[in-house]
Structures are given as C-alpha cells and as structure tokens.
Amino acid sequence: TTTATPDILLPSDYVFTAFMKLGDDGGQVEPLQKALQQLGFFPVDQAITGHFGPVTETAVKSFQAAHGIEQAGYVGPATREVLNSY
C-alpha cells in the first residue's frame, strides 16, 4: 500500500505568528493546512485552499488533542508554539 504525501513542504524554519480561526482566509491559513497535512492531521485528499473551514478546524482540534492542548479549534499561542517546534 502506498500513502499519499503532500506535494508542497514548508521550509523547516517557517514560523507561525498569526491567530487563526474558523472563517479566516489567506494569511497563514494555507501554510497551516500544509503543515497539518504534512503531520497527518489534514486529509491528503482535501484541497489546500487557504480558507479556515470545518475541515481545517477538525484538523486543528485533532492536532491539539494529540499534543495535550485544549481542543479549541483555533490556532492561538499554545498551538503555534507546538507547530513551530516541528
């Protein structure tokens, strides 16, 4: 069995600085989606759109749960800190 891998990887020194939540567009949402996809939380069959919709919110909550962060569904300081540690 082969596993799909994301086509576009973020630079290892990429730093998330923005607060992101459901309904946001642009900014760091697209890099967030790419990072979550690389880490296995955002579905590989889902398009990277730069829109923080329900799929991104679910991926963020899964990431938060896996890292012991409150599953708020938005990207705040605690979530950014863990994202930036990769």
TrEMBL record:
Q: Which residues form the Peptidoglycan binding-like domain?
A: 26-83
Q: Which Pfam families does this UniProt record tie to the protein?
A: PG_binding_1
Taxonomy, superkingdom: Bacteria
What protein name applies here? NLP/P60 protein
